[in-house]
Amino acid sequence: MRTFLSFAAGTAVALTAWATPVLAQKQGGTLRISHRDNPPSASIHEESTISVNQPFMAVFNNLVFFDPKKKVNSPDDIVPELAESWAWTDNNKKLTFKLRGGVKWHDGKPFTAADVKCTFDAVRGAGDDKNEIIRKSPRKLWYANVKEIVTNGDLEVSFVLERPQPSFLSMLAAGYSPVYACHVPGRDMRSKPIGTGPFKVVEFKRNESIKLARNPDYWNKGKPYLDAIDWKIVPNRSTRLLGFTAGEFDMTFDSDVTFPLLKDIKSQKPDAVCEARATNVSSNVLINRDKPPFDNPQVRKAMVMALDNKAFSDILAQGNDLDGAAMLPPPAGFWGMPKEMVATLPGHAPDVEKSRAEARKIMEGLGYTADKPLKIKVSTRNIAIYRDPAVILIDQLKKIHIDGELDPIDTTVWYTKIQRKDYQIGMNLTGVGVDDPDVNFYENYYSTSDRNYTAYKNVEVDKLIDAQSAELDREKRKKLVWEVERQLAEDVARPILGHNVANTCWSPALKNLVLQSNSIYNGWRFEDLWLER
Amino acid sequence: MGSYLVRRLLLMALTLFGMSVLIFVMLRLVPGDISDILVDAAGIADPKEKAKIAKELGLDRPIVEQYGQWVGGLTRGDLGFAYVSERPAIEEIAPRIPISAKLALMALFFSVIIGVPFGVISAVRQNSLMDYGLRILSLSGLSLPSFWLGLLVLMAAVHWFGTIPIYTNEPRGFLAEVGLLAIPAAVVGFRSSALIMRLTRSSMLEVMRQDYIRTARSKGASNASVNYDHALRNALLPVVTIIGIEAAFLVGGLIVTETVFNIPGVARFLVEAIRWRDYPIVQNLVMLIAFVVVMVNFLVDMAYMVLDPRIKFGD
What we know:
The complex is a heterodimer. Chain A is of the alpha+beta class. Chain A has helices at 2-24, 50-56, 113-123, 167-172, 186-191, 237-245, 259-268, 297-305, 309-317, 339-342, 352-365, 384-398, 414-419, 437-444, 459-470, 474-490, and strands at 30-35, 64-66, 78-80, 83-89, 94-99, 146-151, 156-161, 199-205, 209-214, 228-233, 273-287, 374-381, 402-409, 425-431, 496-506, 510-511, 530-531. In chain A, strand 6 (146-151) and strand 7 form a beta hairpin. By secondary structure, chain B is mostly helical. The radius of gyration of chain B is 24 Å and the shape is globular. The model of chain B has no long low-confidence stretch (mean pLDDT 89). The A-B interface holds A 38, 40-41, 46-49, 135-138, 187, 190-191, 205-208, 232, 234-236, 238-239, 242-243, 245-248, 268, 410-416, 419-420, 450-451 and B 31-32, 36-46, 49, 52-53, 56, 84-87, 92, 151, 154-155, 157-159, 162-164, 166, 168, 259-262, 264, 268-269, 272, 275-277.
């Protein structure tokens, strides 16, 4: 009898523990969020901005996804979405997905393996010109290793790779890798996309609002909990944040709250839940190594020795930005080199004054003095988050006889200009879609990449990048990644001034929100969120 | 009068034609076009993708052909396709015009009903405490940027009333709409009202020193009759001119106020369209503004005849 009672009590406790979170989750309600600007389109595959990912990720699903309950995107925490399972075969050169059956697009048509093939063929530039689902593909490079995509019936698809690439699954798990409905033309995907995701697009009114409604036929039964998500486009940040404190919005736009503004929010809305987290967006310096005098490695070395990363962080983020190399440092990041190693890299020395004295000697050796400084232009996008660090950079360069003049560039032609190498020194921000070495290194540092804006070229580094990309042993790969980071820092490929940290705030009524610490571009499915009001 | 009107209408048509050429050419002189920007916004600069988009949007065709296509379309009521939204431009522009028009009219109404009476009071009670007070008010109206004033109003509303008077949902009903637009209209109209107040005051002071005002007083006319029937009517001529000019300048004020109060009107939309080099939207909206300005000027000129019967437009 006692055994039975113990069992019954244990079962009751277990059931209560299991049932509590389910009972606590309330169905219904409209989540109201402010949006910082007008998204260029609703087509995630065609854009490279959180302005598109944050509102529209909830419309789609991926094959696989970084576990939305985990704070750090890690290759160990990838969960299935439209795929039920996956397996590597053929010496890790073939990745086969078994797809979920019975999934429907928002327009009622069935989802099949052909949609997966068509989406990723279009993204890698091997799509059907007559059935154009996208008109530009900023992440073509992610799929450069794909030889072909093969379907086997409606519920199986394989990606055949040229060589093993363990990162490939992480790239498919990113917010930037949704599966598109291939029967929907590109124009519609840009304005009112169709997905398989937890929410349907009701309306995308440019400059005004984005309205999403619960998908009642969502394959993940019981989800989402919210009835709707209502985004209001409010371009003025002061108005957005005042709207949040007045209770007009349940949540701020992601990373919208700077550290000085955080104090205002907390004083005006003391019950607001605010979280600071790394965004995996780094501030970095572009040095045009083709243009004299920056073709001289000595000048580049002196420049990097003049940098005081702590000052950037203190001024711009009240000391909260993270010092790191090319990859986001741990614990926020998964792959970056440890803090002690970062401190040994050029430009990260703790004794900045000593470093600057050496830099001055180099500059003086090249004929530059306080009276006869090196005059340069520091180009940057004409928006505050770019201009502010550029001004600090100019001030720091003065300490080593470099007299910089700010050259603000219209934001709409910024990348065109730097890709043309029409600059001397550039102040840039680089967001990384996935905290993954392949994504970061191949996009920004590989000698043949379009986005290698400084035209940095080192054959040895290219080999190292390829080697880490193919390495299956995690620990060995990390060491190779750190070696690449060291080499990039020593070559002054693109000096990193800091990895940004920013705040996002929400009302206490919003439950279950998990902000991911190593990419702002992931984790916005919204299907696990609910409102307590 | 008839031939004057014909000449005037022809001049208006010529002005609008000149404007269309100017808008078209100036837009294309600004660095970057939509294909640059669409590709740039994605963080890439692939020349092939750019060329493909440019071809798709007809930007690779000769500039004269593009101009002809736009003006030809205008005459048929076809405003073309918006580049960014890929929808007919008219569908993007039309719903936003009434919002801005109502805001502009309310702002103008506010500036006139505040500016003219306060200007008269200030003149009639010259050098009194009230005059000084009103002059300070008008000076502050001229010197406070509407962007700053708007934010101040929003902060005060949040602080004191725990609410924020911004446009988050379409208001239902006339009263709700007036209530929502009244504060931003007051913010936009404050500057214009200050200008109108100062001009009315100085114009009134000048008129009130005229012989016929003294004559009216000596005939025993009441103060109200002298001030409003005799003085104000004659002092209004320069005021009407400035109201016409202010109506045109309101667009500038609307851009700022629509941004701060988050009103989805044409002014904010225009700025966004310029940022994206969305030529069909920018060209048509600037043409619309030019048309409104030309019409307002015409109406102001016509109003001169009503206000001062001595003015005749003839051959």
